Amino acid sequence: MRQLYHPSVEEITVEGILYAFSDPLRIQIFADLAMAECGKNCSNYLNIGNETLPKSTLSQHFRVLREAGLIRSERRGVELINSTRCAELKDHFGSMIQAIVTAYAFQKMKKKTRHGV
Fold this sequence. Notes:
Layout: H1 14-21, H2 24-35, E1 40-41, E2 47-48, E3 51-52, H3 55-67, E4 71-76, E5 79-84, H4 86-93, H5 96-115
Antiparallel strand pairs: 1-5, 2-3, 4-5
Helix pairs in contact: 1-3
Protein backbone atom coordinates (compact mmCIF):
# COMPACT_ATOMS: atom_id res chain seq x y z
CA MET A 1 0.00 0.00 0.00
CA ARG A 2 1.29 3.44 -0.92
CA GLN A 3 2.57 5.65 1.89
CA LEU A 4 0.60 8.87 2.52
CA TYR A 5 2.53 12.11 2.28
CA HIS A 6 2.37 14.44 5.28
CA PRO A 7 4.67 17.45 5.00
CA SER A 8 6.73 18.45 8.00
CA VAL A 9 5.66 21.70 9.67
CA GLU A 10 8.72 23.41 8.13
CA GLU A 11 7.51 22.45 4.63
CA ILE A 12 4.01 23.91 5.11
CA THR A 13 3.47 27.31 3.48
CA VAL A 14 0.88 30.03 3.82
CA GLU A 15 0.29 29.76 0.07
CA GLY A 16 -0.44 26.03 0.37
CA ILE A 17 -2.86 26.60 3.23
CA LEU A 18 -4.68 29.37 1.38
CA TYR A 19 -4.90 27.22 -1.76
CA ALA A 20 -6.38 24.34 0.24
CA PHE A 21 -8.92 26.71 1.81
CA SER A 22 -9.82 28.29 -1.55
CA ASP A 23 -12.43 25.59 -2.21
CA PRO A 24 -15.64 25.97 -0.15
CA LEU A 25 -16.02 22.22 0.31
CA ARG A 26 -12.45 21.79 1.58
CA ILE A 27 -12.78 24.54 4.16
CA GLN A 28 -16.13 23.08 5.22
CA ILE A 29 -14.51 19.66 5.66
CA PHE A 30 -11.59 21.17 7.60
CA ALA A 31 -13.88 23.26 9.83
CA ASP A 32 -15.94 20.18 10.66
CA LEU A 33 -12.82 18.14 11.43
CA ALA A 34 -11.53 20.97 13.63
CA MET A 35 -14.72 20.87 15.70
CA ALA A 36 -14.81 17.06 15.94
CA GLU A 37 -13.67 15.36 19.11
CA CYS A 38 -12.01 12.56 17.15
CA GLY A 39 -10.83 11.76 13.65
CA LYS A 40 -13.37 11.07 10.93
CA ASN A 41 -13.54 8.76 7.97
CA CYS A 42 -13.72 10.30 4.49
CA SER A 43 -17.12 8.70 3.93
CA ASN A 44 -18.58 10.98 6.63
CA TYR A 45 -18.41 13.69 3.97
CA LEU A 46 -20.04 11.96 0.99
CA ASN A 47 -23.10 14.18 1.49
CA ILE A 48 -21.79 17.64 2.22
CA GLY A 49 -23.54 20.90 1.61
CA ASN A 50 -26.38 20.35 -0.81
CA GLU A 51 -24.70 17.73 -2.90
CA THR A 52 -23.47 14.16 -2.93
CA LEU A 53 -19.80 13.96 -3.84
CA PRO A 54 -18.25 11.15 -5.85
CA LYS A 55 -15.64 9.27 -3.82
CA SER A 56 -12.93 10.32 -6.29
CA THR A 57 -13.73 14.03 -5.76
CA LEU A 58 -13.78 13.57 -2.01
CA SER A 59 -10.42 11.77 -2.12
CA GLN A 60 -8.98 14.68 -4.09
CA HIS A 61 -10.20 17.21 -1.49
CA PHE A 62 -8.65 15.19 1.34
CA ARG A 63 -5.38 14.83 -0.61
CA VAL A 64 -5.16 18.62 -1.07
CA LEU A 65 -5.82 19.21 2.65
CA ARG A 66 -3.26 16.54 3.61
CA GLU A 67 -0.55 17.76 1.23
CA ALA A 68 -1.10 21.34 2.41
CA GLY A 69 -0.30 20.03 5.90
CA LEU A 70 -3.70 20.81 7.38
CA ILE A 71 -4.80 17.27 8.18
CA ARG A 72 -3.24 13.95 9.08
CA SER A 73 -4.70 10.78 7.58
CA GLU A 74 -4.11 7.48 9.34
CA ARG A 75 -4.86 4.10 7.80
CA ARG A 76 -7.01 1.81 9.93
CA GLY A 77 -7.66 -1.29 7.91
CA VAL A 78 -9.21 -0.13 4.65
CA GLU A 79 -10.32 3.22 6.10
CA LEU A 80 -8.50 6.53 6.36
CA ILE A 81 -9.20 8.40 9.59
CA ASN A 82 -8.57 12.13 9.27
CA SER A 83 -7.86 14.74 11.92
CA THR A 84 -6.52 18.27 11.86
CA ARG A 85 -2.96 19.25 12.67
CA CYS A 86 -4.07 22.46 14.43
CA ALA A 87 -1.99 21.84 17.55
CA GLU A 88 1.17 21.25 15.47
CA LEU A 89 0.53 24.28 13.27
CA LYS A 90 -0.30 26.77 16.02
CA ASP A 91 3.34 27.44 16.93
CA HIS A 92 4.27 28.02 13.30
CA PHE A 93 1.22 29.94 12.02
CA GLY A 94 -0.22 31.43 15.21
CA SER A 95 -3.94 32.09 15.04
CA MET A 96 -4.10 32.38 11.23
CA ILE A 97 -5.79 29.02 10.64
CA GLN A 98 -8.32 29.52 13.42
CA ALA A 99 -9.05 33.04 12.15
CA ILE A 100 -9.76 31.71 8.64
CA VAL A 101 -12.07 28.98 9.98
CA THR A 102 -13.88 31.52 12.20
CA ALA A 103 -14.31 33.92 9.28
CA TYR A 104 -15.64 31.05 7.15
CA ALA A 105 -18.19 30.11 9.84
CA PHE A 106 -19.29 33.76 10.15
CA GLN A 107 -19.64 34.06 6.36
CA LYS A 108 -21.68 30.86 6.22
CA MET A 109 -23.95 32.08 9.03
CA LYS A 110 -24.51 35.43 7.30
CA LYS A 111 -25.38 33.66 4.05
CA LYS A 112 -27.96 31.48 5.82
CA THR A 113 -29.48 34.53 7.53
CA ARG A 114 -29.72 36.47 4.26
CA HIS A 115 -31.36 33.60 2.44
CA GLY A 116 -33.62 32.65 5.33
CA VAL A 117 -32.28 29.11 5.49
